[in-house]
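Sat 14:20. Reprocessing the chain from the morning session after the first attempt stalled halfway. Input below, unchanged.
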Amino acid sequence: MKRKRYVMLMAMVLQLIILIPTTHSDAADDTTVKIALVADPETIIPFEWRSQIDLPVMSSVYNSLVTIADPKTNMRTRDLAESITILPNKKDIKVKLRKGPKFHNGDPVTAEDVKFSVEQVLNPINTNALIGFFDYVEAVDVVDKYTVIYRFSNPYAMWQETMWIGIVPKKYYENVGKDGFREHPVGSGPYRIVDRKIGESIILEAVENHIDYKPDFKTVKLLIATDPVTRTAMLEAGEVDLIYDVRPHEVEKLKMRDHIKVKKVTVPSLYYLSVKPCIYPMLNDIKIRQAINCGINRQEIIDKIYLGEGFPIYMWANPGELGYDPSYTVEYNLEKAKKLLKESSYNGEPVLIAYASIMPNARLVAEVVQNYMKNIGFETKLMEIEYGTYLTYCRNKDKRAGHMALSFFTIDYDPGLRLMMSMMSNSQYGYYKDRPVQKEMDRLILAQGEEMNMQKRKEILKKIHAINKADPAQIVLMGLNQIYAMNKKIDFDWNAMTQYMRSFERIKRVQK
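Finished this time. Tokens:
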């Protein structure tokens, strides 16, 4: 009798076990997609924009008047804007908004919200890194509920770059204040932020009945993973569904995983060695910078570290952008580099080279650059640094940013922004501001920004790049392909006009 009861009991236990759902690393909530971000955003408020690492979240939470550029027309695609008209005086631009888009709290997106958002960018208290693009904006006037006019002080070639900042709801922001908005941000994009743990994760939730978007996934969970090895391991283990900035030498390993597919695309991409004469005056000597410029073998870095997944760049411009000249080259010449350094004022002082893991294979590149520098005759030290901290040091001209640093400028801006942010006398990220022809450089940068004729503007850009070639402010190295990988249960095609992960609503569920 006891044995019979025991057998019956065991049968019931087995039935319960069968009914209990089993878990597996590949199993996932089919309403949630998980993505590994390479860095935690510095801010989630559009008019406090700090750097490219803010884009993945901002581009999904906030809509803007225009979005990513069309490579065929070099014009940004309209988003909240229904029409954009340059007025007869060639300075003012009228923007008519679409009727229908709403903020996450239900309020309509209106002209007052556009005016308010631009005015917040212009407010120095918000220290927006893109403020240089707004120098010519004198005012934004409201014509009616859905029409504004941007008033520029002069004709402005880069006017599109004043219109992709995320629009925030004026009434809501004024009611809750900056701290309240930071806790509960509201935009008009396809997703809203429902949870954020600084340095760990951000959870986005799809907005129901959005006028423009119907995402396949209700929830997007963003996990901060700055280390590329960690990101790859997370994808393999099923802890995330999508990663980007995959290191080339990991591609074949990932392709061998049955549940993973790998894609790549050529994107706007510019990696360089940032040299900082304004922090370390020893680097003002042009021969020191010229020695570095011709003492680094760019193609060798691409071939050996990135397995050919990139291309050398020798000028301060992305291939394909306005003003880029493929005939610009810098010959790798070790003997010439040694001679230049010997003729310079370099006294053997160790040079600190900083790098951050946000750059693919940053440690390897830093070590290779260190070796090139040693071959020339430089004493160097390497320092790994968190990218957000590095940017703070740079903005404050803090010596802890290093004599030099591996850095990047990989976003789909008009080329004028890069020039204004890095080469003007008053630029926020400029570290060489007293070149012998600095006044002429400033004049040319301002002139290209006011030239509405594209061909004439290209001629001005050519002169700017010629000055920088003769007396380099940065040692431009290369561009890289964007390699990304995902679980086969999803599909996502990267937009070739941007380096950064964005448009989470375009991630699709693969139908079985």
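The two ends are 50 Å apart (CA to CA).
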